[in-house]
Each structure stands twice: as C-alpha cells, then as structure tokens.
Design brief:
Layout: H1 6-23, E1 27-32, H2 35-38, H3 40-55, E2 59-64, H4 67-76, E3 83-84, E4 87-88, H5 92-115, E5 120-124, E6 131-138, E7 141-152, H6 155-162, E8 166-170, E9 172-174, E10 180-183, H7 185-196, E11 200-205, E12 223-225, H8 226-235, H9 242-254, E13 259-264, H10 270-276, E14 283-286
Parallel strand pairs: 1-2, 1-11, 2-8, 5-8, 7-10, 11-13, 12-14
Antiparallel strand pairs: 3-4, 6-7, 9-10, 13-14
C-alpha cells in the first residue's frame, strides 16, 4: 500500500471529526474475543484502538472472553473441552480453570493498555457485585456453572470511568449464594451495555458482519435497522453463532443502547475503521430512529 501524503492524512483526520464530536464523552462497550485475542499483532492493534478512543474523548469499556485459552489449559490438565449448543459445559474443575485463565488474560490486557500510557483497571464480574447471575440452561439442559446475567451493578464501572480509568472486565459472576459462574462474554457485554445505556456496543468477531446469505459474500449488510434484524431472525436464515449474537444486538437496542456494531476483529484497526470512517467495516444495527 502506498504511503499517504500529508494532505491525505489530514483528510482522514477531518473525516473522523464529526464522529469525535458526536460520540465525545459517550460510553462504548467493546466485546473483545475470537481470533483477535489469539494473534499478538491483532491484540496489540485492538488495544491501540481502545486507547485511541479513550484519548479522543470516548469512554471505552472492554469486556473480554478467552475461550480458546481456557480450552488450551483444560487440555493441559487432561480434560476434554465439552460444548452443548455452543456453550461450554462447566463442572467445578473447569470453572476453577476458567476463572484462573480469564483473570490471567485480564491482567495481560491491563498491562498492554498501561504500556500505552492510559490508566486501566482489570475487574471481574465479582468485583463490586458487578454481575449477579443465575444458572443458565441450554435448551433445558443443565451445563454446570454457566451463568445467565440477572442484574448488573454499574457503580464500579462508572466510578472507574469518572476517575479516568479504562475498565477491562472478565465475564465471571456469582449468584445469591456466592457460587461462581462463567458467563458467555457476548451475554456479559450485552448486559453491561444495556445497564450503562451505552452509546455503542461493538462485537469483535471472526466474521465480516451479518450476511443475508453467508455463502454469498456480496450480501453483507452495512446497516440493519431493528425491524430488519428481527425479520432476519424470524426468516430462519440466520444460523451458527450469528443467531445468538444478533439476538443480543436486538436485546441491546431495545434496552437503551443506541447502536450495535458487529465487525471482523481480524481486520487491523477494525474499531477505528468502523467508528471514524464514512464507509466503516462490518454491520451496524440501529434503532428505528437512528441514521
């Protein structure tokens, strides 16, 4: 790729200006997971994007997963990872491993943000009673210590934002009896975004966005309004991991989040491209009144 001239660089910055004005001091929840967590260069770029957003006047909140790393550690102790309908079956030993791994991932991300000169605070859903859970069933089947978020106490996040920290959250919560649960990171990010009434919720995934037909790459939606997203689900064309993700998007929009973005975390600096450019990348899901 040819290097941009000084004038072209200036034009790029000016293109970002209306977005900086519009979303200044607004909360953006970033769900970070998938391949972008496994590749060190992509991980660095995602963290650079989050730091850029923070320094540009936004209020980013990162909610991260760690599924591949959890599976790796489970294999190390001689266990076979087990999934039911895409959800990890989590017995007591697996729960212990998951919490250990997620906290390790969490502090690694905190370190990366700190190295770029921004204050970060890594917390789990246990801290400040952030994520109150119940047991989540998979089509009526008990899959162990998998949590369904019932209540979000946003005070600790808002306190950290007020003190100019970038909160980084790992999806562990507990119930009324203080039993620990592993929470799907998409579910946790959606619940947190709803509770914060976030301006944006961004899902970094391993696909380019939402397709009408996944086999037809020209059928990618750049924008979907709420009614269109509902029609897609009702039509039965959505399959695999996109169905629960799109359902989470609809839930978020219906509960106060202004817009949700589904984007390919494997694209370098996808967050900046989606938020600061006219064309963007991925799919933006909007409320009916949004443009």
């Amino acid at each position: 790729m040819p290097e941009l001239t000084s004038l072209e660089k200036a034009k790029v910055l000016i293109e970002a200006l209306p977005y900086i004005q519009r979303f200044n001091r607004k909360i953006i929840v970033i769900k970070y997971g998938g391949a972008a967590m496994a590749d060190e260069e992509l991980k660095k770029q995602v963290i650079q994007d989050a730091v850029f957003l923070k320094l540009a006047g936004f209020k980013p909140v990162i909610v991260h997963g760690g599924g591949k790393e959890i599976s790796r550690w489970i294999a190390k102790v001689g266990k076979e990872p087990e999934f039911v309908n895409g959800l990890r079956v989590t017995d007591a030993e697996t729960m212990e491993i998951a919490e250990m791994v997620l906290n390790k991932v969490n502090k690694g991300l905190v370190q990366m943000v700190s190295e770029l000169g921004v204050k970060a605070a890594g917390i789990s859903g246990k801290d400040g009673m952030l994520l109150k859970c119940g047991r989540k069933l998979s089509n009526g089947q008990d899959i162990g210590f998998v949590g369904n978020v019932r209540e979000v106490n946003t005070k600790i996040i808002l306190d950290l934002l007020e003190k100019d920290f970038l909160p980084i959250i790992c999806p562990i919560g507990y119930d009324d009896n203080y039993i620990t649960y592993n929470v799907n990171a998409d579910d946790a990010a959606c619940a947190i975004a709803k509770a914060l009434k976030a301006e944006k919720l961004a899902f970094l995934t391993d696909v380019e966005g939402v397709y009408r037909d996944f086999e037809d790459k020209s059928s990618l939606f750049s924008e979907l309004h709420l009614s269109e997203a509902k029609q897609l689900i009702e039509s039965g064309v959505m399959g695999g991991g996109m169905l629960p993700k799109l359902s989470n998007c609809i839930d978020a929009i219906e509960n106060g989040v202004s817009r949700v973005h589904i984007m390919d975390g494997r694209i370098p600096h996808c967050l900046l491209l989606e938020i600061f450019t006219n064309n963007g990348v991925g799919t933006a899901i909007l409320g009916e009144e949004q443009e």
